[in-house]
Amino acid sequence: MKAIVQDVYGSADVLELRDIARPGPRDGEVLIRVRAAGVDQGVWHLMAGLPYLIRLFGYGLKKPKVPVRGREVAGVVEAVGGGVTRFAPGDEVFGTCEGSFAEYACAEEDKAARKPGGLSFEEAAAAPISGVTALQAVRDAGQVTVGQKVLVLGAGGGVGSFAVQLAKAFGADVTGVCSTGKVELVRSLGADAVIDYTTTDIAGAGKLYDVILDTAGNRPLSLLRRLLVPKGTLVIIGGENGGKLTGGFQRSLGAPLASLFLGPEVQGACRQGNAPGSRGPGIADGRRQREARGGQGLSPCRSAGRHPVPP
């Protein structure tokens, strides 16, 4: 089969389209014929091996442990391994796996879900990591409830766009922060108010929030603390700032320590890619939550572009 492979860490120049052996599903896995694969920030980090901290997470110290890139997948089940009960050949699915930039990829059964009929394969492939990271931030770390005031930084991004919708699904009053070009997008996602950070200081509105979801990672924690109510919660989801050693992980890993000194609760919610049982099913739960409140479900993830792979 064709696959996009790398032997060493580096820029996109290290990626090669090659013929490699087709994988077979092990017990508890499904073999998926890939129709679309998502590209998120994690793909770049794993390609480059940066920050260096991720190499200690089992991805390979000197070279990639898994040579085929890609973590998000949508396609059709080709075969199932022993013990798989939720899927059968022919099922349309989406979820997360290792090595989705290929014609075929294997995913653990509990990291896949049936693709909603209203989503294209491309839309489904763009959703798992951003959608579930947002769900974990809103529901688990932030514990957003009805009537709370929620501020979403980076509301026009992959995680942020889902966070806006999910916070609304849980009944919150949502303010989204984004650039000028994304104001209408964020408003269309259901935000009650939108702040264009290029023209408006987020601290100048005089409004305090019960929960702040920070997907951008470029504002001082001391500033965000001042925007919280006394018992508010700041959820740090990621960010691309930081050095080569820890990168954006620094803010999330330091969140518990920050709580001791900053007063409000500071939660770390790193971008997710390997949480068992939470990929597609979590997104489906979020859709049902919003539909139960009379909405239309979550809007499909808006991709930044597409890149067909030559046969």
UniProtKB/TrEMBL annotation:
Record InterPro entries: ADH-like_C (IPR013149), ADH-like_N (IPR013154), ER (IPR020843), GroES-like_sf (IPR011032), NAD(P)-bd_dom_sf (IPR036291), Quin_OxRdtase/zeta-crystal_CS (IPR002364), YIM1/Zinc_Alcohol_DH_Fams (IPR050700)
Q: Give the residue spans that cross the bilayer.
A: none
Organism whose genome encodes this protein: Pseudarthrobacter siccitolerans
Keyword Oxidoreductase in record: yes
PROSITE patterns found in the cross-reference section: QOR_ZETA_CRYSTAL (PS01162)
| Alphabetic keyword roster | Oxidoreductase
Domain Enoyl reductase (ER) intervals? 10-236
CDD domains for this protein: MDR1 (cd08267)
User: What GO molecular function annotation could you give as one example from this UniProt entry?
Assistant: oxidoreductase activity
**Which Pfam families does the protein's record reference?**
ADH_N, ADH_zinc_N
Q: Does the keyword GTP-binding apply?
A: no
Q: Where is this region: Disordered?
A: 270-311
List the protein's name.
Alcohol dehydrogenase GroES-like domain protein
